[in-house]
Amino acid sequence: MHIIVDGYNLIRQSDTFRQFEKKSLEEGRNALLRSLAGYRKLRGHRITVVFDGWVAGSPKEERDLAGGVEIIYSRLGEKADEVIKRLLAKGDEEILVVSSDREIVVFATRRGKSAIASAEFEERLEQCATGSFPANASGEEESDEDDERPGMKRKGPARRLSKQQRAALARIRKL
Questions:
Q1: Domains assigned to the chain
Q2: Which residue stretches of the chain are H helix?
């Protein structure tokens, strides 16, 4: 699976990374990259983090690699959102986007990709760092409501998620 992270979105949605960012923007980026590199080492997913460079960046898009994590700085005049959309549009592999930006989430889901909120992904990073993994995607124990009421017939509309929603949950469970 390929995880694409909206870098500054995750930093600013996170209490942990925001503490580093208060010292300097570079400290915030480095803290995020260290965390992502550790996550990548444990879980083995391909990770790309995209940072805005559109205000004070280079005239060309810059790429780097740190701890096995691919880093992309958008070019001057281009937002990270545009770079992420471009990666989503050309990506044929299984992709999960980490962002709380609604526009990116909608763009990803319309292309059959999955998205996870920055705060939720931060929890997964922390769980991975401490070695405590949840039983399922929501972090709660699974329970089968029907086991408690044997012999009851289901009434009403089907409770099954759509095929697209099931595929998105399966991708998130792989985290």
A1: 2-137+158-173 (3.40.50)
A2: 7-13, 15-23, 25-43, 80-90, 102-110, 118-130, 145-148, 163-173
Q: Is the pLDDT of residue 144 over 50?
A: no
Rounded Cα distance, 109 and 91, in Å:
13
Grade residue 4 by pLDDT with cuts at 50, 70 and 90.
Answer: very high
Q: pLDDT for 10-39, tens place per residue?
A: 998 888 887 887 788 888 888 889 999 999
Phi, psi of 100, rounded to the nearest 5 degrees: -105, 5
**What average pLDDT score do residues 141-161 get?**
55
- Whole-model pTM: value is 0.74
Contact 55, 94 (CB under 8 A): no
User: What letters, b where the CB count within 10 A reaches 16 and e where it falls short, cover 102-135?
Assistant: eebbebbeeeebbbbbbebbbebbeebeeeeeee
Name the DSSP letter for residue 126.
H
CB-CB contact of 96 with 175 (8 Å)? yes
Facing residues of 96 across strands?
A: 3, 114
